[in-house]
What we know:
By secondary structure, the chain is mainly alpha-helical. The protein has one domain. Helices cover 73% and strands 0% of the residues. The chain contains 12 helices and no strands. Helix 4 packs across helix 7 and helix 5 (95-115) packs antiparallel against helix 11. It is globular. It starts with a helix and ends in a 26-residue tail after the last helix.
Amino acid sequence: xxxxxxxxxxxxxxxxxxxxxxxxxxxxxxxxxxxxxxxxxxxxxxxxxxxxxxxxxxxxxxxxxxxxxxxxxxxxxxxxxxxxxxxxxxxxxxxxxxxxxxxxxxxxxxxxxxxxxxxxxxxxxxxxxxxxxxxxxxxxxxxxxxxxxxxxxxxxxxxxxxxxxxxxxxxxxxxxxxxxxxxxxxxxxxxxxxxxxxxxxxxxxxxxxxxxxxxxxxxxxxxxxxxxxxxxxxxxxxxxxxxxxxxxxxxxxxxxxxxxxxxxxxxxxxxxxxxxxxxxxxxxxxxxxxxxxxxxxxxxxxxxxxxx
Length: 308
């Protein structure tokens, strides 16, 4: 079991290193379904693994000057308050509710990744805006609550918030988001750890492997086109979300279903959604994203190239 956990944790670390987030989306299902750990314990363990890995990943960004400590501390402090109290509440919420909420969050994550980030013009040009403290604190609290309840660091929400409300450039926002995720994860873990016995014989080796994977992922970033990576991971997240729903909803309805059938449905459902998305993007006049055919412009069009 430990060997499997370590191998899968390497994937978690590579994901964090490549994307600057997304670790909890893999860690919680691994702990819950691959290792069979209780849902609430899996949430707590996920917070520790993701928090430790994010903290290690911060070092690389900090050395490159891509961390804004003041804004990160403000956002993270607000998040820690939300994460701590949400972690205290989490044990009193049925596991199926938390896991269904986690699956919904996964679909939101996938949508955000497929839609793509559109940073503020000043963030692209290298300028900076003044930090809007109210929205930063409010969103920090919201992300912290999510972290404490379902074990998710919320990187897909933190980065846009740091750009729009914190006035940071995109690369700095990504590095700073890891600080926030670390703080949120720590607070959420502290809120939960006192309620459950943590399987340290699994969590510590997973954390070590994930940290190693984050280093590898960081080095691979320059070799993989970010748009392809983001979209590919988004569709993987959709499949994981279908898997979680497929495991938890029948259980809530007292229906027995085999894991293999759920996994097959997740693969098939993801493939179907991917095909529909490609067809919709292609439209009646040409191929979809990445297709070999020429671009065409219809009368009245103002932009021949759709934004991602």
